[in-house]
Amino acid sequence: MRNLINLATFMTMGIALIACSSLPRGAAVQSEITRGADKPEADFAVYPVTRAFLPTLAYWPKTGERQLSWINTSRGSTTHIIRPGDKLDMKIWDSGENSLLTSSEQRVVDLSNVVVSSNGSVFVPYVGKIVVSGKTPDGAREAIQRDLEAIVPSAQVQLSFSAGRANSVDLVGGVAAPGSYPMPDQNYTILSLIAEGGGVAPSIENPQIRLIRGASIYGTSIDKLYETPSLDTRLRGNDQVIVEEDRRYFLSLGATGSEALHVFTKDEISAMDAVSITGGIKDGRGDLKGILIMREYPASAVRPGERGPREQRVVFALDLTNSDGLFSARKFQINSGDLVYASESKLTGAQTILGLVGSVFGIFNTVSTD
Q: Could you tell me if 36 and 311 are in contact, meaning their C-beta atoms sit under 8 angstroms apart?
């Protein structure tokens, strides 16, 4: 019996030594990841996320997707403004005898699809070029009739307008009916265009709005447009509007509920939101004191004189076992490309070793009673 006990003890010690170094684990413990951060040669920095730290973090640059600005709404003309490329349909009525424009059998001249030239003018017979760009349709009609009256005093002009490229906008993707839409007036807004296109496709997660105007790109989300009427910006001719899914994402690894890539489901994702999106922390495995957010900053963030981290590679450490850590996790904003890592609890390895030891003694107890 003594020999069996000695053998069991020896095997238990061997198992413990082997287990400490070679047992498979689902994730690393926090101390393994942050080891060496306090050394001068360390190429990363660790920052505990607390209430006292959050104001400092607010001054650090954003990482991930490019930050886009947006244009507030404004008021424009409630009617059309004629631009180069628009088309005018003109009818010139003249009941006078010996008219230059009409005959006794035909008292109206029909000028259809007259394109406004690049210099903003249209050609009218016997008058020549008349500048109409920048005028309303009524203003253009009055200008044409005024110039005609010099040679045809009794002439009357009827004018209708159809928008060309300079008075149209493109709705590109993300809606039921994408296409080119003529602007009904100069107060045509983003939300009006999206509504005319059939609304945002329901399959798009956290729809993002992109406005391309000339060489500039502006961006916001559909939720912000819904919530803030002052952001429903007024469109201009040749604008392009794109509705697309939010391309921002974060990764989750370790003892989280899922190890995957997660797209942003709303405009701002906190660390607490991210933990919830990943399925929480695995019971019995995850260390609630070792939730780590890993982020890499650009080289410009660590230049002298800049308010930023000490190193480009940063590990933010959250402790979800106290109130300060929990509240701070709700204020900490996840950036696109962040890695949310749930480190493994030290108790997991100890429990595994104890389970193996118990198995060994169970085997010898069985042998000793046989």
A: no
Tell me how many degrees the CA angle 303-309-313 measures, rounded to the nearest 5: 100
User: Is CATH 3.10.560.10 the right assignment for the domain spanning 30-63+248-344?
Assistant: yes
What tokens were used for 176? 């039921």
Q: Are 45 and 36 in contact (CB under 8 A)?
A: no
Closest alpha carbon to 155 in 102, 226, 227:
102
Average pLDDT of the chain, as a whole number? 86
H/E element, 208: strand 208-213
β pairing state of 313-318 and 44-48: parallel
User: What's the rounded Cα separation, in Å, for the pair 43 and 81?
Assistant: 60
pTM for this model (two decimals): 0.74
Least confident of 85-99, 182-196, 280-294, 333-347: 85-99
Mean pLDDT, range 93-98, rounded to an integer: 70
Q: Which run of H or E residues covers position 340? A: strand 339-344
Same fold, 30-63+248-344 and 169-244: yes
**Inter-CA distances, 218 with 161, 208, 266, 368, Å:** 30, 11, 18, 78
Backbone phi and psi for residue 292, each to the nearest 5 degrees, phi listed first:
-115, 135
